Amino acid sequence: EGLSTAWVPRDPLPECGESSAREPRDMNHTKGGLVIFTANSHPSSRELGKRIAERLGVEIGKVQVYQEANRETRVQIQESVRGKDVFVIQTVSKDVNTTIMEMLITVYACRTSCARSITGVLPYFPYSKQCKMRKRGSIVTKLMASMMCKAGLTHLITMDLHQKEIQGFFNIPVDNLRASPFLLQYIQEEIPDYRNAVIVAKSPSSAKRYRPDNAPMTVDSREMTLFSFWGPSCYSQTGTKLGGTC
Exposed/middle/buried for 125, CB within 10 Å: 0-12, 13-18, 19+? Predict the structure, then answer.
């Protein structure tokens, strides 16, 4: 009584568990609760993130990563990640320490922004060669694992760890992918006479990655020759020096 006839009451708020008839606004540029961030340590990181985003049909999330005048790293997340599954893609540049700090600060920024899960994608895991105690040194790889878990990482995806036992340093799931299937695919598609190919590794430890448990490396069920390489000479897997120059 006393109200204008033009006044129309608003729709009541939806009960808990019910959806509103009005279409919700998407505050992110990604779909399905997936957000992909890349740092700026190297152009390849941005390129890798771009290709992954194109494959998934999403856009790269907006994040600003830069260096202060005193070389401190600053990260600003420029979109909401609340309740989202975040993937942080980071490749390793020559400035390894800056790469690590960019990764840690980005992960921590997503954690404090209430992301549901944070997955780190590092094709090469930094400091992975320092995974053993040497004299009065330290196991730096364990320190790296602890820092990443403490920053808020919930899952790690990497490739060809220096030692597969490094996965035990983490208290989160770790996917240690192998590059050998892609290498074999490249050989089959790009090398015309690949059946007579010789694969050269820079050291015996590198050769073992492609010959697990001394199993032969095969392409189309044909064993390939795998050699180790030091300087201008080639050595077989048993250490026998071969003639000629590699």
Answer: buried
58 closest CA partner among 84, 92, 83: 84
For every residue of 36-58, DSSP letters joined together read EEE-SS-HHHHHHHHHHHHHHT-
pTM of this structure: 0.68
Do 28 and 86 meet the contact criterion of CB atoms below 8 Å apart?
no
Nearest-5° Cα angle at 19, 16 to 22: 135
Which pair of structure tokens corresponds to residue 51? 């290709």
* Per-residue DSSP letter, 204: H
CB 65 within 8 A of CB 106: yes
Q: Which residues of 171-189 are buried (b: 16+ CB within 10 A; e: fewer)?
A: eeebeeeeeeeeebeeeee
Closest CA to 108 of 83, 142, 140, 76: 76
Helix (H) or strand (E) holding 200: strand 198-201
95-140: pLDDT as tens digits: 889 889 999 999 999 999 999 999 999 988 888 888 888 888 888 8
| Per-residue pLDDT tens over the stretch 190-218 | 888 777 767 776 666 666 665 544 455 55
